[in-house]
Structure formats: structure tokens, C-alpha cells
Specification:
Length: 197
């Protein structure tokens, strides 16, 4: 009996996140109606409050889901390079490029920071940072990177990619800004190399 209740709670949570993701992408956080959203999935506002506390909590869950997907996709792209240095560049560029995806742009890069605050403090960003730190540690150990503090280097690289994505998303012409953001991210990362690229 208890297992069925847990399964139902997880199903309700998943339904609410999916409906909110759609509503936030189409209408934006402010214009999305929680009554419409809960009615669409056959649940009450009570289910929303029980699972997320409030609309802001629901946005946090949606942002976490999308940002985690972004990080995972960027890491897969980086892993295809077969080389930590090239992979780091590809991963950063892929993350920045996702700022062109309308759902990512609106929910994660515009509404997310406006409602949830500093993205570098989001759980999904912490996970992304830890992956970057592991890569930086390997590059330092292989003497590809200068013997700097790995945490500092990883935080600055992660911050550069995140801020570049935020800049692209908020710009009047994201497609024009994107190549500049990626080129500069690559140049900043190259500054960590033991020997010039």
C-alpha cells in the first residue's frame, strides 16, 4: 500500500513538472497560471503545494531538470572528443550554444535567475562544477594546465560558460552574440594551458 502511494506521488510530481515546463516555456513564469496547469493534469493546487511548496518551488524543479539535461548533453558532446582539453572546450561551447534553445533561454537563463537568484548556487550547477573540477584536475596532473588551484580554475571556467550563456540569452541578437561568446570562452580557457595552444 505504501509503495503505491509513493508511486502516485512520484507520478503526480512528474506530471506537474512536465506541465509546468510546457507552460513556463510557452507563457513565461509570470504569466503561467497554476490553476490552469494543475487542471490540465487533473490535479489540485494542493498537490502542487504538497510537492513543491509553491510556484517558485515548481520553477526550481523545472530549472533543475532542464539544467541537468543541458549539463548531461554538454558532457556527452565533450566526451566524444576523446581528449580532456578538447572535450572541455567542446562542453563549454555546447552549454553556451544551448542558450539559443527557446525553452532553455526562457526558463533557465531568463526566468530562472530572475526568480531563483544566482544560478551558480543551483544544485544542477554544483554538479556541473564538480565535473569540470575533475577534468581540470586531470589536465593539471597531465601538465596540460598550469599548476593552479583546481577548484579556482573550475569555478572560473564554469562561471565563464554560464555567464556567456546568460549573455547570449539576454541579448537582442543571440545568434550574433553566440560566436563571440564561444571564441572568448575558448581564449579564456587557453590561458590555463601550460604551453600556448
Amino acid at each position: 500500500m505504501a509503495k503505491r502511494r509513493i508511486d502516485t506521488m512520484e507520478e503526480n510530481r512528474a506530471k506537474l513538472i512536465a506541465a509546468a515546463r510546457k507552460a513556463f516555456a510557452e507563457k513565461g513564469y509570470s504569466a503561467a497560471s497554476m490553476d490552469e496547469l494543475t487542471a490540465e493534469v487533473g490535479l489540485t493546487r494542493g498537490a502542487l503545494y504538497h510537492n513543491f511548496g509553491d510556484k517558485r518551488g515548481l520553477l526550481a524543479a523545472v530549472v533543475d531538470q532542464i539544467d541537468s539535461e543541458m549539463a548531461s548533453q554538454a558532457q556527452e558532446i565533450g566526451a566524444r572528443e576523446g581528449d580532456d582539453w578538447k572535450g572541455l572546450l567542446a562542453e563549454g561551447a555546447a552549454y553556451i550554444e544551448m542558450a539559443l534553445v527557446p525553452e532553455v533561454q526562457r526558463i533557465v537563463l531568463l526566468d530562472g535567475p530572475a526568480v531563483l537568484g544566482d544560478p551558480s548556487r543551483w544544485p544542477s550547477q554544483s554538479s556541473c562544477f564538480l565535473e569540470t573540477k575533475r577534468t581540470v584536475e586531470r589536465l593539471i596532473a597531465k601538465e596540460v594546465f598550469k599548476p593552479l588551484d583546481a577548484e579556482a580554475a573550475a569555478r572560473l571556467l564554469s562561471g565563464a560558460a554560464l555567464n556567456a550563456a546568460l549573455w547570449v540569452a539576454a541579448s537582442d541578437d543571440p545568434k550574433h552574440v553566440l560566436p563571440k561568446a564561444i571564441e572568448t570562452f575558448h581564449a579564456l580557457a587557453a590561458g590555463l594551458l601550460m604551453k600556448p595552444a
